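Quick one, tokens below. Sequence please?
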């Protein structure tokens, strides 16, 4: 889409009708393709390669594996590959919340806080991965979030062992 042509058309229209040029810009804007590359990414993910854990311990092991995957992909600068495991973490945290409630109801409240902390870290990563800021994406570093993630994981293990 060429803005120059549309702007010229609007200018001509404004000249011809004597109207302010602001009104006709709306339809042009509506036709502009979405600049957010991720509008097709509706966060509805199939669970194809996500195996639901049966126990808290199994879930935590999966979580550690996913963290390692995200870390490796980000270290390699491959944000698209990192996105998959980032989302799986979200699903897994939900599963873990349910498993903890079932298996370890006594520590549920504390465990939920730790799960929440992990979620927040990954949510930040996801925001940058899908953000419009290319520079921020290039600089995205798992190491910045690792301490919070690892502390929460350690806490979860301690609570649920
Ligand atoms: Zn995503």
């Amino acid at each position: 889409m060429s803005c120059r042509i549309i702007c010229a058309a609007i200018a001509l229209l404004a000249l011809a009708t004597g109207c302010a040029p602001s009104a006709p810009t709306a339809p042009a804007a509506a036709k502009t393709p979405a600049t957010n590359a991720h509008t097709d990414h509706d966060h509805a993910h199939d669970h194809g390669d996500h195996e639901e854990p049966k126990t808290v311990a199994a879930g935590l092991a999966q979580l550690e594996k996913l963290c390692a995957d995200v870390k490796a992909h980000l270290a390699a600068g491959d944000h698209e590959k990192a996105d998959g495991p980032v989302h799986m973490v979200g699903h897994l945290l939900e599963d873990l919340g349910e498993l903890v409630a079932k298996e370890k109801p006594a520590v549920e409240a504390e465990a939920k806080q730790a799960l929440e902390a992990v979620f927040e870290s990954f949510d930040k990563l996801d925001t940058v991965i899908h953000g419009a800021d290319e520079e921020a994406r290039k600089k995205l570093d798992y190491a910045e979030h690792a301490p919070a993630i690892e502390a929460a994981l350690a806490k979860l293990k301690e609570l649920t062992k």
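Residues 1-33 form one domain. Residues 41, 83, 86-87, 126, 129-130 surround zinc ion (CB under 6 Å).
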